[in-house]
Every structure is written in C-alpha cells, then in structure tokens.
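Moderator note: this is an archived Q&A kept for reference. The question asked for a predicted structure of one protein chain; the sequence and the answer are reproduced below.
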Amino acid sequence: MFRDIFHQSGLPQVIIEPDLTYLEMNHAFCEFLGYTKEEYETLTIESVSHPDDFLLDYRQFQRLVKGSITEYEMVKRYIHKNGSIKTGRLKVSRIRDRATQRVLYLGQVYDLTEFTKIYEGLRQSEQKYRLLAENSSDIICLHDSFGHFLYISPSIKAELGYDPEELIGCYSPHLIHPEDQDVVTFKEQTITFRAKRKNGSYIWMETTIKRVINDETCACSQFITVSRNIQKRKETDELLTKSEKLAIVGQMAAAVAHEIRNPLTPIKGFIQLLNSGMEVSSQYSSIVLNEINRIESILSEFLTLAKPTERKMEAICVDELLEQVIQIFSPQAFLANKEIIFQKSGRSNRKIKGDSNSLKQVFYNVFQNALDAIEEKGRIMVTLEEGGEVLCVRVIDNGCGIPEERIKLIGEPFYSTKEKGTGLGLMTSYNIIENHDGTISFESKEGKGTTVTISFPYVEKEA
C-alpha cells in the first residue's frame, strides 16, 4: 500500500542512498526532470543539480548523515534533460527500512518553476514601472483610501522642494491652497489647484486621480495620482486672455467709431449748409434727425452689452409673449407683402422662468432679421413646441439664406450679414438667452431660407 502511495503520488519523490546515489524514484520525479528510471541509474545528484546550489545541498546532506539534523529544506535549481532550469523546494528527511534497519533518505520536491517565472515577471515589471516613476518629470504618488501618502516619486523634490521621505504618511490635501480645497475629492478625475511648496509659495498643478480596486473585496483600497507643474501654462493662458481682451476692445472701438462716422457725414454736411446761409428744406432736417436716431440706437446697443440692465425673473407664458411681438411686426410685414404665421398645438400651460422685456428683445431681433432676409411675398413661420425638458421656439423664413461659412460668425460683435447691420442685436440676444439657461442655433441654405431654434428649460413646478 505504501509503495503504491509513493509511486502514484503527484509530488516528485526520490529515495537516496548515503552516497547520494538514487535507490528509487516515483513517476512524478521522472517527469519533473524528464529522465527515465533507466537513465537515472547513470546519473548522480550533482549531474542534475545547478552548480551554484549543489554545494549547499551537499553540505546540508552531510549534516543529515552525521545526525546533526533530522531534516532540511532549501530552494534548489535543477537541470532538466532539455537543458532548461527547474526550480523546486527540496525537503530531505531521514527514514529507516523496517525490515533491514538500513538508514535511507527521502527527498521530496515541490515544483516552484511556474511560481518562479511569475515572480520574476512581476519583479521585472516592478523594476520597469519603478524606473519610469523615479525618472519621470511628473510627480507620481500612491495614497491610501483616506488620502495619506504611501509612495512619492523623487520628482517632487524638483517641483515642490520636499524630499519624498518627509511626506510619507502625511495627509495629501494639506499641500493644497485653502481656497482650492473644494476641488479635491478622491474619485477618478483631473483637477487643477495650487500646491504648497516647501518655501511657502504656491504653484499651479494639474493632477489625474485613478482608483486602485482590491480584487477580493472589489472596494477601492488605494489611489494613484499623477501631477504636473502647469504654472507656466497658466501664466501663458493669462497673457493670451489679456491680449484677446485688448484685441476685442480695439475691434469694438474701431467698429463703433466706423458705425458712428457714417451717419455723422450727412449731419456735418447739412450743418455746413446751414452755416453758409442757404435755405434748407424740412426734408433735410428729417434726414439729420434720422441719422441722429441711428447714432443713438448704435450707442444704446453698445451700452446694453457693456452694462446689462437688471432683469426681473418670473414665470412667463412664451406663447403670449410671441403673440405680442408678432402683433408689433404684423403691420410692417403686411405693408411689405410679407406674412407671419404662428403655429402651436393648443394653448400651452408650460412656462419658463425669465424676464419678459429681455425675451421680447430677443424675439424682436430674430423677427426683424427674418423680415430683412426675405423678399416680397415672403413668409415667416413661427412654431412653439413642447417636449422633453425644454420649450422650443422655431422661426423659419424662406429668405435668401446664410452661407455656411458665415453661420459660425453669427453672434460676434459687429458682424452682420446686412449691409448696415452692427451685429450687436444678435450678440445681445445671445447674452440674454445664455442668462436664461437657453440655447440658440441656426440652420440655413442659400436661396432657401433660415431656421432659428431657441430653447428654454421649463420652470420648476411650484409647491
């Protein structure tokens, strides 16, 4: 029975004589090194052992033979028949043959070859990643689930002035400017904040946070952060922003001057006629007044952009507001052989939150542009649609349309598709719609017309 257990065991086992010759081995031991039992008769333990491990094995075996120890264990490398290296944990113990009382030695080998390969692969991977972390200009950190530093790459010395050992175990948010504390939450995200340097100053940093999930508990056990210095980028962005603001101010000043100069030319001419003593008809006076009104209109639009008036926000029925604006434009449209049609499905009970005067200004600008775009016997279709979470107003005309490359410029200051337009009307409308949490979009085809879609969120239901 014991012989069957020995030979059928999956654990490589061998019985050795005191002179290190093989007496018996099981099938698992033969498979472990690839030799047959007959081939083992011509082999010695030294011939199948790695040279660097045999000497230690031999010394331990001699101590066992002399009785200094009763057994020993060691991790040992073997040479397979094909020349590859096998690793095993060898355990050798003294046994006695009950029949002959002869002392023999039982060797058992636990195959560690695959574990060794895996360990070596992990060790090499760790070396590679550690090499990357320790030579990266980014600051790579490992935190526990509460935010304390567990590992910090050496690059923190160059960026913040700390030695990594100084901060191990510290609570990482303590390095963040007090005004930026609210941006720090330990979840997967990218954040920007001011980090405190060792000398007390602050620099802007950008940090990407990743979670480390425990395979057994499926819970977040640690966090990895990768941070980089963006101070120079911030300073460059600020300079660009200032430059853009100055450029916009210059463009607006030049455009306002140009728009005002045009009506000033006829005004100046008529005043010169008056100074010369010539009689001027009332028709000329009317032209002067119209040009002055035009200057006043340009300045009013400009001031509206510079200093918006205070708005009274309340619940508004958009259909009523549209009807009021359409009534204002109906006579103008009738005289020009143009038609405005308002379509809606029943009476809307849904309201939006806004300022009625401001929204009237938006619809006024859109309707005026639509009327200016269409020729005689043109038509404007106004629809009001409810759906989802927004209320949509669509103004559709069959006018001349807008070239595709110009649509993206709509809403910019002093850009207009009309010959005498300033572009301030639509820019004001954009600002009003944005303040109402709404959106505006344009779809147009040359020669076929334009569709303007304005959407507003519904007002929350009152308790």
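Archived answer notes: The mean pLDDT is 82.
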